[in-house]
Amino acid sequence: MPKEIKDIKNFLNIARRKDAKSVTIKRNPDRATRQGNTKFKVRCSRYLYTLILADKEKAEKLKQSLPPGLNMNLSINFLVICICAILLAPQKVNSLFEDQVGKFDWQRQHVGLIDDSHQPSSSTNRIIVASHENVIASLDLSSRKLGNYIYYFYFIL
Predict the structure, then answer these.
(1) Could you tell me if 109 and 82 lie in one domain?
(2) Distance between CA atoms of 111 and 134, rounded to whole angstroms?
(3) Whether residues 12 and 54 fall in one domain
(4) β-strands 135-140, 149-154: how paired?
(5) Average pLDDT for residues 109-119, to the nearest whole number?
(6) Structural domain of residue 50, as residue ranges?
(7) How many CB atoms lie within 10 A of CB 135?
């Protein structure tokens, strides 16, 4: 529940306290009389204090006499949020992929349809395969995984 303050001097004292976080200013035009009022709100640790002024000149003077740091807190927070949003926005990224580092080679996973294979008589753990996609590879049969190659050649014709 906001506390309403009637005196400008008390409002300025509250606005200059250490626990005052922000000041918001809202102008409410009155359509019937062509005059309106201006609401000043100060958020403190315990209460939200409000001051309502009908005079435009007094409202302008009060606005100029408010501490500048109170309005800056909101704009700095907004600026930080905008910068974070820009930095985290998806954009074109130039980075190393796993196949460029050597952890994963997508070409080795895609040997293709094997046309011919040969198992040397001296070795029972290896098989040499050739595919119709110009790949010659020596597979290690001891681990029984497709990705373990002893050597791998991709011929460009």
Answers:
(1) no
(2) 9
(3) yes
(4) antiparallel
(5) 73
(6) 3-88
(7) 19
